[in-house]
Amino acid sequence: MTYFKKDDESLRAPKGGRFDTPHHTSRQSGRRGVASRTMAAAVVGATTAAMLGLVPVAAAQSSMGSSSMGSSNHTPPVAARQQDPFYDTSTVSPQRPGEVLRTQVAPYTRVFGTLDYNLPSTATKIMYTTTNQAGQLTPVTGYVVEPAAPWLGPGERPTIVIGRGTVGQGDQCAPSRNWPLDGQPDPISAKRLVNLEGLYDWVYANQGVRVVVTDYVGMGTPGVHTYMNRLDQAHAMIDAARAARELVTGPNAAEGAQSPRGKQGFGKVAFYGHSQGGGASAAALEEVAGYAPDLTVAAGYASAPPADLDAVQRNIDGSDLVGAIGFTINGLLERYPHLRPLLDQHLSAKGQDTLQRLSGMCTGEITDEFGYQRTNQWTKSGESLDELLKTMPEAQAAMADQYIGNEKPAAPVMIVSGRYDQNVEYKQGRDLAQHWRDHGGDVTYRDDILPPIGEYNHFAQAVSGGAFGMPFIMSKFWQAG
After folding, report:
1. Do 182 and 273 lie in a common domain?
2. Which of 352, 383, 399 is the last residue of a domain?
């Protein structure tokens, strides 16, 4: 059954019968200062905790404002090309999707330092098997947070699979190699602000929900991260749930995974994400029924999902996150190598160098190095990459393969799209809701509640949307059956 809640009137077309993308505030051509980004991050972090009722507002502001966030400022962030044997795939032999290939216990930092939480002090890094777009078994990494808090709802402990927003394309950007694991510096000190999404872990774990975070294909592990590849991301999310199930119910299950009911428990699954994670969550919801019918999926949440990469690419060109277009192109070239000679004919030397450099960068670096550039600066002809790709049928076919909205989602889902989002185009998020609705999906849609705050709308929606998405997910976990 398809439905939209009464307060979701924003999905209805205005007079004239069409949706118009709102006029965006003009982008400043200069780079924003680090201090401005730091302040925005501190506000987002404090607001997250306060909105979700985890800590007193004053305590949250004090902890976030100090930039300590419970981690050691003496620990340097993982650097590019820094080796860690945990991520070496040469000694593993994948046999089936969702199997656990390797585990490692890692210290888990508490976001607000000494404030009392019923939260674990360690997490488990995992290497597990997934299936890439080509059907090949592929090792992927991530981590699992087994809650200290009991699950008090019906059934066994549920599991939330979280896809992070755009953290970068270099191996050093992988969520499992960053805060809140291994005493890594907090997102503000490390200048990797997207890792503030580690706050999601605390929200769910504090409610007794198991948390699994995937690094996606090719991030942390060898190879190029296939950024925004629909099937790679969908399968990485789905198989992360299977890996968590093996971790807590298999022969080597940890004692801490035991349920309050006296047996190893694995209950319902949900998918959650913002930005790139919103796209990964949405793709997983489309694929899970056919790919993993062994999972019981309760719900999904997709905030600012890049469902239509063509629309997103046009919108993001010239923004602070224009480098993410390079991430997308690099991911396409990894899965569609026949496109490389076609593209090389049109890229300038600067364009080729830019793509190469982007493949090893984290998001904070791309905003500093390439923010507010336009992709017509990367081509010989002065055409944008969007215009260039439209002249290549093979490239258009590859982009079309990444489109999300052709299948019915497997479970009730909430979508949030930001009217003032200057990065992920607003209308295509609404369109995804409508397409899923047309396919018979159980969809709740919301416009993001934030007023215009310039380039920060997209970043802040990770919090403002979550204030609705998290209760939505929890309500589905609490439904019996």
Report:
1. yes
2. 399
How many other C-beta atoms can be found within 10 angstroms of the C-beta atom of residue 23?
Answer: 8
Residue-wise pLDDT for 148-206, tens only, equals: 999 999 999 999 999 999 999 999 999 999 988 988 878 888 778 888 888 899 899 99
* Best CA proximity match to 72, nearest among 194, 197, 191, 184: 184
What's the longest Cα–Cα distance across the chain? 67
Verify that 190 and 281 share a domain, yes or no: yes
Q: Judge if 323 and 201 occupy the same domain.
A: no
Task: Judge whether 224 and 330 are in contact, CB under 8 Å.
Answer: yes
Give SS3 for 173.
Answer: helix
DSSP state string for 22-79? PPPPPPPSSPPPHHHHHHHHHHHHHHHHHHTTSS-HHHHHHHHHTT-TTS-TTSPPPP
Q: Is residue 244 part of a domain?
A: yes
Is 438 found in the same domain as 363? Answer: no
Contact present, 210 and 146 (Cβ < 8 Å): yes
Is the domain of 468 the same as that of 393? no
Distance CA 431, CA 436 (A): 9
**322-361 pLDDT, tens digit each:** 999 999 999 999 999 999 999 999 999 999 999 999 999 9
And the tokens for 393?
């049928």
Give 434-449 pLDDT, tens digit per residue.
Answer: 999 999 999 999 999 9
- From first CA to last CA, the distance across the chain in angstroms is 18
State the Cα–Cα distance between residues 245 and 98, nearest whole angstrom: 9
